[in-house]
Amino acid sequence: MDKRPEPRHAAEILVRVWGMDSDGRPFFQNAKAGNISIEGALLSGIAHPLKTGDVIGVQHGERKARFRVVWVTDAGGFRTIDAGVKILQGQQSPWQGLAQSNTLPEPTGKNRRRFPRHKVLFPIEITFDDSRRSHQQTHATDIGGRGCYVETLMPLPIGTNVNLMFWIDSEKVRTTGKVRTSDPGVGMGVEFTTLDDHVQERLQHFLQKLDTGFANREAAKQGG
Question: Which of the listed ranges 14-28, 77-91, 103-117 does the model predict with the highest average pLDDT?
Fold first, then answer.
């Protein structure tokens, strides 16, 4: 009954957990993750109500990802719960090394992306055709040639049309977008809807340079 396709790591690790609880209130707290694998974990000590299907953010060290709550149980302590979570498609496990695996399964079918996403802090401006709405100067934390994910406690509803502006080197790029996923308390996924193919290719190349530069700096710090 308990056969699992991926290895598990029994040791508990400290993580940061955030999102919107089932009462509609944002939360941000420390918790413990145990029984971890590339695909999921058992989170214990959650002091906020959650329900099956909620999407939350989980961070370990400098790495973070979005997970879906698959089950919840009373932990037996004062107002605390345990929750089983499973990583969302396209996310990279924040405890990948501890899960005793060096690679994630390759996405298949409709989840295979033409452009891989890069985990970089990428400045982006979000505006609206309705000039009365406030502009948002923010950062995408997960971006590729076809779209990005913006972490925010108050994401826009699915289907919202937005205007986007960002820079590729010294060139200002403008495009339109549509909100495709909206995770309360965590963030939203935005698809670039009018970005030309050649601009997508240039953006992807630019992101690769940023990612490589960041990786080299991290390696230099660790070596020093």
Answer: 14-28
**How many Å apart are CA 85 and CA 58, to the nearest integer?**
10
172: CATH: 2.40.10.220
In a domain, 92, yes or no: no
CB-count exposure of residue 139 (10 Å: 0-12, 13-18, 19+) = middle
Q: Which of 117, 52, 50 is nearest to 81 (CA)?
A: 50
Shortest CA distance to 198 belongs to which of 180, 178, 171? Answer: 171
Give the global pTM: 0.66
Q: What tens digit of pLDDT does each residue of 168-202 get? A: 999 999 999 999 999 988 999 999 999 999 999 99
Range of the domain at 158: 115-223
